[in-house]
Amino acid sequence: MKTLAHRSAATVPQPDHPYKVMALYKFASLPDAESLKAPLAAFCCGRGIKGTLILAPEGINGTVAGTPEAIDALADYLFADGPFGTRLAGAEVKYSFADTAPFLRMKVRLKPEIVTLRAPQVDPNRQVGTYVEPEDWNGLIERNDVVLVDTRNDYEVGLGTFQRALDPHTANFTEFKDYVAKNLDPARDKKVAMFCTGGIRCEKASSYLLSQGFEEVFHLKGGILKYLEVVPETESRFAGECFVFDERVSVGHGLEPGTATLCRACRHPLTEADRQSEHFHEGVSCPHCIGESEKHAAAAERQRQMELARARGTAHLGDDAAHTAARRKSEKQAQAERSRKANGG
């Protein structure tokens, strides 16, 4: 019997792109996570699927890409026919498409948590906040009695966020607990709404707030990615682009690849303004890592090796994917600029 998640894999529209991207997570009891790791890795590698999947006793999380046929087969393996049985039924699954391979290799990792918060009292399988469908999100966050919090890290927020959202300025998710302790008060903040990239961080964040005595906690079902997929751009309250953890770097409305690129020295996402900075040097440095000379030296050597490889007519690992993605972004930016000028912008 095929699960609902599998049927969505089979029926989702298949645009004319060679790569299908699957992002998924599910909090579920997987005490046998260690024994599931090797078979899952073998299944993916045998079908040319690349990306990262994290297994933990509390569930699964990750993003992978491959041919549409390979990703549909993986959906069968995870949700219907494989060793997971029905434990991943109802997983949060999102599909998108790409012209170039978003990942360079396949990794299946075993970790204590599928998203690290280090709060033992938190159990999303037992208690989470109230899910809000993307179509209902605007109405909620426009209310004056709702505190809106972005649970993502600072470099993600810098590319785009919802209007009126509070930025916790965290470098990693474990710092979110400190932000809550210092900035939110259950006696004052009666209604708190939260969002993240795909929904997984909010599962734990909402469970954590409820454990701390907050009464009404809401979170965006499917995260920003689902919102950008289903809410028309004309009605959107999301400004900017959404950072994603692959070579696409960011996506916009309709989950189309965005214009952000990645600093190859510090891995910080870069806007057009960042790339115009005097501190930006392709493959070497950016405004976010200008004082980190060790990273610059390593990045400069990597850039030199890539240029030597291109001069020899050979490919350096990661060179093709990164430069193809950068070229496509450049073409997209040029097209947008031509369109703006043609319309008198």
From TrEMBL:
Enzyme Commission no: 1.14.-.-
Catalytic activity, reaction form: uridine(34) in tRNA + AH2 + O2 = 5-hydroxyuridine(34) in tRNA + A + H2O
Region ranges (Disordered): 297-345
KW tRNA processing (keyword) present: yes
Basic and acidic residues bias: start-end ranges: 297-310, 331-345
Family in the record: Belongs to the TrhO family.
Protein's name according to its UniProt entry: tRNA uridine(34) hydroxylase
Species whose genome carries this gene: Devosia oryzisoli
